[in-house]
Amino acid sequence: MELANSFNVAAASALTLAGIAATAAYGVMHPESQLFGRTLVAPPLPTQLALTFDDGPNPAWTPQLLDILAARQANATFFLVGKFAQTESALVRRIADAGHLIGNHSWSHPNLAQISSRRIRDELTRTRDTLEQLIGKSVHFFRPPYGARRPITLRIARELGMKPVTWNAMTNDWEEPSADRIASNLIAKIEKNQQSGYATNIVLHDGSHHGLGANRGPSVHAAQQLLERYSASHNFVTLDAWPSV
Predict the structure, then answer these.
(1) Residues near 2 by beta carbon (within 8 Å), at least 6 away in sequence
(2) Across 14-160, where does the E strand assignment appear?
(3) How far is CA 46 from CA 55, 184, 189, 238, 239, in A?
C-alpha cells in the first residue's frame, strides 16, 4: 500500500509538472496567448484584414511586393530585421514613403524567450534606433521572432515605446512552394476569423532571417491573390488602425 501511494504521488507530481510545462509553452509560443502579457492580435472588426510581412527588407522580392500593393492601393505592415534594414536602407525608405507601417522584428532574429534580458534590450533598441533614423519617425510596433516571448520581452518592448504584436493567421509560407496553397490556407483562416467576429492579422514573409535575397515569390504571389479576392469586400489596414493593447 505504501509503495502504491508513493507511485500515485510521483505520478501526480509528474502530471502537474507536465501541465505547468504545457502552460508555459503555450504562453511563450502560441500567437493568441495573453498569459505572459497582452499582445495585439486582432479586434472584433470582421471585415478588416491586416497584411503583415516579416523578415525583410529583401531586395529580391520586397520591391515587387510594393508594386503589387500600390496597384491595389493597399497598405501593409512590415516587420523588419534590423541588420537587413541597415544594409537595405534605400528599400526601407521606399517602404515608408509608400505609406506602409514599419515595425521592429529585432536585430538578428533570435528566440527572445531564450536569451538574456540585456540582449533582448539590445536587439530591440538597436533595431528601433536604426529604423527611426532611416524613416524619420517613431516605430511603435514590435513582433517577436517566431512569436516567442516571455514577460520580460514584452516589458522591454513597452519600455521602448512599442506595442507587442502577434497574429491569428499564418501558414508555413517560408517553405511552401505553392502560392495557391498558401493563399488557400490563409483564406480558410480569414473565413474562420470572420465567422468568429474578428479581424484577421495575416503573417507572410517577404524575407528570410537566414539572409538577404531569399526566394519569396510564393508568399508575394499569395498576397496578390488575397488582395484580388478581398479588395472589394474587406478593408486592408495597417496595425495602427486598431485599438492599442
Answers:
(1) none
(2) 48-56, 77-80, 101-104, 141-142
(3) 27, 18, 12, 15, 14
Active site residue 54: yes
Q: In the chain, count H helices and then E strands.
A: 8, 8
Contact (Cβ atoms closer than 8 angstroms) between residue 50 and residue 167: no
Alpha carbon of 106 to those of 17, 81, 127, 130, 205: distances in Å?
32, 6, 6, 11, 15
Taking 70 as the threshold, does the pLDDT of residue 167 lie above it? yes
Largest interatomic CA distance in the chain: 75
Beta carbons within 8 Å of 102's beta carbon, 6+ residues apart: 77, 78, 80, 92, 95, 96, 131, 135, 139
Which residue among 205, 209, 221, 234 is the active-site one? 209
pLDDT tens sequence across 83-137: 999 999 999 999 999 999 999 999 999 999 999 999 999 999 999 999 999 999 9
Nearest to 94 by CA among 138, 56, 126, 40: 56
54, 55, 173, 206: the catalytic one is 54
Identify the structural domains of the chain with CATH numbers, from first to last: 48-241 (3.20.20.370)
Q: 218 pLDDT exceeds 60?
A: yes
209 is annotated as an active-site residue: yes
- The answer for residues whose C-beta is within 8 angstroms of residue 208's C-beta and 6 or more apart is 55, 58, 174, 214, 216
The whole-model pTM stands at 0.89
CA separation for the pair 130, 37 (Å, rounded): 26
How far is C-alpha 54 from the geometric centre of its chain's CA atoms?
6
Cell readout for 143 is: 513582433
